[in-house]
Amino acid sequence: MKKYKVAIVGATxxxxxxxxxxxxxxxxxxxxxxxxxSARSAGKEVEFEGHTFVVEELxxxxxxxxxxxxxxxxxxxxxxxxxxxxxxxxxxxxxxxxFRMDPDVPLVVPxxxxxALKDHHGIIANPNCTTIIMASALNxxxxxxxxxxxxxxxxxxxxGAGVAGMEELYRQSQEILDGKDxxxxxxxxxxxxxxxxxxxxxxxxxxxxDLDNSFTKEEMKMVNETKKIFNKDIKVNATCxxxxxxxxxxxxxxxxxxxxxxxxxxxxxxSDSHGVHLYDDIENQVYPMATEFIGDEMVxxxxxxxxxxxxxxxxxxxxxDQLMKGAAYNSVDIGNKMIELGLL
Length: 344
Ligand code: A2P
Known about the structure:
Largest sheet: 6 strands, parallel
Helix content: 25-40%
Bound molecules: adenosine-2'-5'-diphosphate
Structural class: alpha/beta
Number of strands: 14
Order of helices and strands: EHEEEEEHEHEHEHHEEHEEEH
């Protein structure tokens, strides 16, 4: 089997670290791995599975001889450096939002739309974490019942805001327990005007607002990316909320379908969906919760129930470690799928 020269861009970040783990755990066939980050991290050593990697500074010349790069260093970094990687012949799997809605860039959740990979021109986008998790959970239901509309509320962990988000939750929790006022520096959005405490709190803002329509950018990612992944005009209304969970996103999802819901068939489909684990034992209070699945690549679905008033509607509760299925695992899975399809 061919082995690939791999680079991870943003390797010292919350997602980048998981990308390295996923390359090993999910047997991406590598010959070498180059870890890239900012000049601040250059020279740092990362020990993993008996290997010592030395982090290098990302530059325009980092991609000579690299076959595949996994990116998660922020949209502006992808925008600036990825054209050099494409020019060097490297295939790029990008976890940032920068290229996601570009019509020339496939936006892929492998179990939903792997067919789109064949149209790539050196860049494949990994969707937004909340969107991947929802799309994976809904894929088989959509195939059979034809989803027309989704209303979703998210309960998103602080790790979605990177290492700084996690640090903020730890620090503020300690400040409050010590009887001090919590200091907010990062959330809801580092680049926005105001910051609010996340410890013992919920913040109804993930990313900045689009002042034209009153939704946040995170919410609009769910709206637009869902349509692109499913390749159809599903109506989506999203409310994204940051909650004081360290890692793992949860979503309350309500769907309306063209065909009437057969709930027993929905249970069958969910128990047979690739990458989905169904929990259907409410009598024994069995349902998925975020803290149970840290480091796990599956999408966990529970609380599945038909709407009381609408034959064509259904609610479900979806949980996944967004650093894994929502980011690092999905990216590496795209790479493995491309090899399987002979595209790499
Ligand atoms: P560094 O650790 O050197 O700052 P997170 O979202 O978890 O904070 O991670 C962001 C990742 O993106 C980190 O690996 C970070 O590296 C990297 N990064 C940030 N700015 C740059 C840059 N200018 N060039 C390369 N990598 C960057």
